[in-house]
Amino acid sequence: MVSFAKLSLGICGCLILAGPAFAQVQPAYRADEIERHFLPENNLGAPRALCIGAESQCSNVTPAAPKTTSGFDLLVNFEYNSDRLTPAAKANLDEFARAMRGARLARASFTVEGHTDAKGGEKFNIDLSARRADVVVRYLEAHGVAAERLEAKAFGKSRPRTNDPADPLNRRVEARLRAQ
């Protein structure tokens, strides 16, 4: 008799494999994908421009603005009113820690941003989002990432990810590359 594993999308939006064939949750991304997000292969430094000619010919030649690195969604989502890491969140954080320990991100520092949905008061949500960011920072530190490379920030419900402020997808942690 052939046994099939059950495939489902968990609350974090990542693929969760369940059944006897799969003993652990699969991460939503790999360490090399995280590295590419923050340090694209074609990152050649700040743009520059050179114009040879009269000043009037060169006045409209300006270098393009440097591209800013957007936040990386760690796919660390949380249950309602919780700062406990789920197995899916831990699998994703394991990959993030692996990327941070790798050579390409060895000198990078990150801001770990905690967020909540809009349920509850402002003070409660700021506290909860701070606990969420802190638990992620502690987990990464326990997995070999130096504390001075991580900064936790709490945003509460002020930056919803979706148009519906009560959406569970707003209960998350994101990471942003800090300027060196």
Write the layout of secondary structure elements.
Elements: E1 6-9, E2 15-18, H1 31-38, H2 55-58, E3 72-77, H3 87-101, E4 110-114, H4 122-142, E5 150-154, E6 172-177
Parallel strand pairs: 4-5
Antiparallel strand pairs: 1-2, 3-6, 4-6
Notes on the structure:
With 180 residues, the chain is of the alpha+beta class. The chain has one domain (6-41, 69-177): 60s Ribosomal Protein L30, Chain: A. The chain has 4 helices and 6 strands. The protein has helices spanning 31-38, 55-58, 87-101, 122-142, and strands at 6-9, 15-18, 72-77, 110-114, 150-154, 172-177. The protein has a 4-stranded mixed sheet with strand order 3-6-4-5. A two-stranded antiparallel sheet has the order 1-2. Helix 1 crosses helix 3 and helix 3 packs across helix 4. The model is unreliable at 1-23 and 62-69 (pLDDT under 50).
Please give the number of β-strands.
6
Query: What is the CATH top level name?
Result: Alpha Beta
Q: Which blocks of ≥5 consecutive residues have pLDDT under 50?
A: 1-23, 62-69
Q: Indicate the structural class.
A: alpha+beta
Q: Describe the global form.
A: globular
Per CATH, the superfamily is OmpA-like domain
End-to-end Cα distance, whole Å, is: 57 Å
In the CATH hierarchy, the architecture is 2-Layer Sandwich
Largest sheet: 4 strands, mixed
State the helical fraction.
Answer: 25-40%
Beta fraction of the residues?
15-25%
Please give the count of helices.
4
Per CATH, what is the topology?
60s Ribosomal Protein L30, Chain: A
Order of helices and strands: EEHHEHEHEE
Radius of gyration: 20 Å
Whole-number total of structural domains: 1
Strand order of the largest sheet: 3-6-4-5
